[in-house]
Amino acid sequence: MTSTVPRTDGATTLIVGSGFVGRAVAARVARDGGHAVLASRRPPDRVGAPWMCLDASDPAACARVVDRVRPDRLVLVHGPSDVTWCEANPERAEELHTAAAAHLTAAAAGRRLVLVSTDNVFDGSRPDNDESADPAPANAYGRAKLAAERIVRAAPDTTVLRVSLVYGWEPADSAKWLNFFAACAHRLRSGETVEAPYDQWTTPVLVDDVAAVTAAALAPGAPALLHLGGPDRVSRAAWAEAIADALGVPRTRVLRVPRAGGRYASRPAHTCLTSSLLDDFLLRHGLRVRGVAEGARELLEARP
Hints:
By secondary structure, the protein is an alpha/beta fold. About 40% of the residues lie in helices and about 15% in strands.
């Protein structure tokens, strides 16, 4: 890539992390008239914006990328998000999340910066954690994200955006693990059964809504801490059944199982977020967050 990234009339946003959420944020920034540049260790599965190679654990590399892109603002969606992997590699997970936060807040040099964080900073003992709730992570992923949050919140002009479970459409041959919605939809369509815990609750958010709120949080005046959860609190089992309904397949293909002992064992019982600030924020920016039924219907209608 050339030494600088061409600029447009709109603001330039450097998005560190080119996965599912990072690509959606880049698309939203472009839709809003800005210029987005993705940066990550590996190139994205699907290219929709300029991309630069970046090892965010290297402070010199972070400084070079910021110098070349000359962004007006930054979004951090960086770090391993596989809860199971983080649980098996807790020290490495925290190292990667905190290094990215430290190096990029330093390289940003006061530019507006938004960190996309997680509901896993809470232990799952209650379903109604708003911005005033004290974090108490119960897994390594949550501890790593909370450590990164503290670094970012100590820097000027930053927002930490905690997001509940993100969902959207991904192709069946995606190189990475599909999000819960896409994995269920593909398997149910192909005639398979889906195991889903009846005792793991979440407030899912459509990826396009996450991207819209993230882009809005880049504007001046956003809260320093903001929670983004969907309007529906559902168990994964009930959500899988709703996806089956939208597809017109029998609910009997969804096998209700306990969280313990399965692949969701390391997730908190409640990965739910509430907010005392979100409604006003959405109103101010002309946005809304869709529920799971509307989101599933729109996603399935838009795909063959």
